[in-house]
Write a structure and sequence with these properties.
Shape: globular
Largest sheet: 5 strands, mixed
Strand order of the largest sheet: 4-5-8-3-9
Radius of gyration: 24 Å
Structural class: alpha/beta
Order of helices and strands: HHEEEHHEEHHEEEHEHEEHHEHHHEHHEE
Number of strands: 15
Oligomer: single chain
Length: about 400
């Protein structure tokens, strides 16, 4: 295919997915994960001492039943599954499952002409992150860290009674779905911002973009044809091979960004908690720049505009990172206090007795509840005002 159907694959995909309830930024990052799965390890940015490959660990995070996270991810993954030679990984990550899947996915590509390279590239789609990975499995987490970094060479795993399994140039691209509660219950404080989580991009939403009771009533009649064209373009993108080159303007932009990044204070993020992420932000941006370039052209060239947009899209995720990890390290009292403040804020105020009933199961003693309300008032989250014959609790404005 000499020409693509769409000028920009991401824009076309977001239009294709726009009839669902999920926010636009979730569709954007689903598109990114889909394109990454098509590109695999066949393109890269060469940094002499290492290479950046366009794989991502995208984690869609939302409270249960809010934005149909798994449905959102599957819109992109269902297209990718119809592209030849694209391999998908296991639903549960174990050494045995990974080795088997890598072995079955090994193929070769040419770059330059006549020179063949092996790759064992898989994309993993997980509707429940907790079913996919146990964060306490340090050996597996360390492997995912190493694979994200795209280290060149063979991956070896010694197994009892089965010798050593060797996989050529393994590569993993991941999109998974979870809730803030699962993260709080499974990721200890010391893991946040470093190691594995600093290599993840957490895409958070706490409300629907719109209400769509019956999506089938909204989608256009040419939906099937649009999907066919998106798949066809993905197939073309999956044939790209070789190194991406930054234009001189892109290098200038990147140098200025790098200096500013390390000389600035990051107000929205706690450096102690998110220092690992901040150290890898440059990598996130350049990985995304490759995706943005591939979305609109087969020329392996990254412009300053690609880097600027990549920086914007990654940076836009940062304010919500506080929500994603907000419950980690907090006592149950603090968690239920937050729930109380949320309840009162959502209702724009309620009677004191109603607020007590909302958390009565956790604060059965009135004096404990009164202490919580007093603390919230003194810290500026709530205010107390009489209304008629009752005392009401209001969110502080």
């Amino acid at each position: 295919m000499s020409r693509r159907n769409f000028e920009n694959w991401i824009s076309a995909f977001m239009e294709y997915a726009s009839f669902s309830e999920a926010p636009k930024h979730m569709h954007f990052w689903t598109a990114v994960s889909t394109l990454a799965g098509a590109l695999r390890r066949q393109v890269w940015i060469d940094m002499a001492y290492f290479k950046w490959f366009p794989n991502f660990y995208v984690i869609l995070v939302a409270p249960p039943g809010i934005v149909s996270k798994s449905t959102t991810a599957s819109i992109g993954m269902s297209l990718l599954k119809q592209v030849p030679d694209i391999k998908f990984g296991p639903d549960v990550v174990t050494w045995q499952a990974l080795v088997t899947t890598f072995a079955e996915s090994t193929i070769s590509f040419q770059y330059p002409q006549g020179e063949f390279h092996a790759q064992s590239a898989i994309t993993i789609e997980s509707s429940e992150f907790g079913n996919l990975l146990n964060p306490q499995d340090k050996e597996m987490v360390d492997l995912l860290v190493s694979l994200w970094d795209g280290k060149q060479g063979a991956f070896e795993k010694k197994t009892k009674g089965a010798g050593t399994d060797i996989v050529e140039n393994p590569w993993i691209n991941l999109i998974a779905c979870t809730t803030p509660a699962w993260i709080a219950g499974n990721f200890p404080e010391y893991m946040i911002g470093g190691g594995f989580t600093s290599r993840c991009l957490f895409v958070y939403a706490d409300k629907k973009a719109k209400l769509v009771a019956y999506p089938s009533d909204l989608v256009p009649t040419d939906m099937v044809e649009t999907a066919r064209k998106l798949i066809q373009d993905l197939g073309h993108i999956s044939t790209l091979t070789g190194p991406y080159v930054l234009t001189p303007e892109a290098k200038t932009w990147g140098n200025k960004w790098y200096e500013a990044h390390y000389e600035s204070k990051h107000i929205t993020l706690d450096d102690e908690r998110f220092g690992g992420y901040l150290a890898r932000k440059q990598t996130h941006i350049h990985k995304l720049a490759m995706i943005l370039a591939a979305a609109e052209s087969s020329h392996l060239q990254i412009t300053a505009e690609h880097l600027a947009l990549a920086n914007q899209m990654v940076t836009d995720l940062e304010p919500d990172m506080q929500f994603v990890f907000s419950k980690i390290g907090k006592t149950e009292d603090a968690v239920y206090t937050e729930r109380l403040i949320w309840y009162i804020t959502k209702r724009e105020g309620c009677p004191y007795a109603e607020a007590y009933r909302f958390v009565h199961a956790y604060f059965p003693k009135m004096q404990d509840f009164e202490a919580v309300v007093t603390g919230a008032v003194k810290s500026g989250y709530l205010i107390l005002k009489p209304k008629g014959n009752e005392m009401w609790v209001y969110p502080a404005r």
